[in-house]
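Methods: holo model generation. Sequences were used as deposited, without trimming of termini or removal of tags, and paired with ligand SMILES retrieved from the corresponding compound records. Each pair was processed once, and we did not select among multiple samples. The sequence and coenzyme A SMILES for this entry were:
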Amino acid sequence: MRRQNLPQPWHERVLLDDGRELLLRPIQPQDVEPLRSAFALLTPEEVRMRFLHPMRELTPELAARLCTLDPKREFALVAAEPQPPGQALVGAVARAALDPDGRKAEFAIIVSRLLAGQGLGRHLMKRLIRWARLKRLEALYGDVLEENHAMLTLADALGFRRTHVPGDHGVVRIVLELGPADSASRQGR
Ligand SMILES: CC(C)(COP(=O)(O)OP(=O)(O)OC[C@H]1O[C@@H](n2cnc3c(N)ncnc32)[C@H](O)[C@@H]1OP(=O)(O)O)[C@@H](O)C(=O)NCCC(=O)NCCS
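and the model returned the structure below.
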């Protein structure tokens, strides 16, 4: 994967090994329909890994909520075609939202199987970690099904530790404690 930073914050041009060119950028309200179309292409397994339970469709209401962020508390990047938001197909989404106490954030990520295995998941996770560090959060965490080897392996490599979610069978909470700023740049980049 090759990357090039663009002038706008959190914008990058990415060239995958399969030749696809993507734009990494913050999610936009115009992404609602592309997000719903992308959801329709997911396998039930991908949906379950991402949402931890089956879901038949991404309703317009939920899609609108996922695409319209409170910038103080939420952050979400998409990997999309280079076309303008609304026209571009969306192939991956990584998001994080602050807990009510403002000290930790929960993340979720999905990379379409058509784009998987080329480093996009790892890179998007690093971007979420960078956002969390810029927010000076104590930790970034996510809930992952225990059979989700891909995500658990990726999380291990990024330094997350696995914890138990009381009462939630089959789910592992992965937590990255965010240390002081100098180790930040090592982990987050
Ligand atoms: C987990 C997921 C985000 C990984 O995305 P990706 O773009 O394929 O990941 P990358 O190509 O960056 O791979 C990074 C590392 O993850 C691990 N990994 C990825 N796919 C894997 C697989 N199928 N089996 C085992 N490990 C895997 C590897 O350690 C890999 O590093 P390596 O390439 O050096 O071996 C993606 O598979 C996905 O979206 N899954 C469905 C949704 C989901 O599970 N979300 C997580 C819960 S919120």
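The two ends are 15 Å apart (CA to CA).
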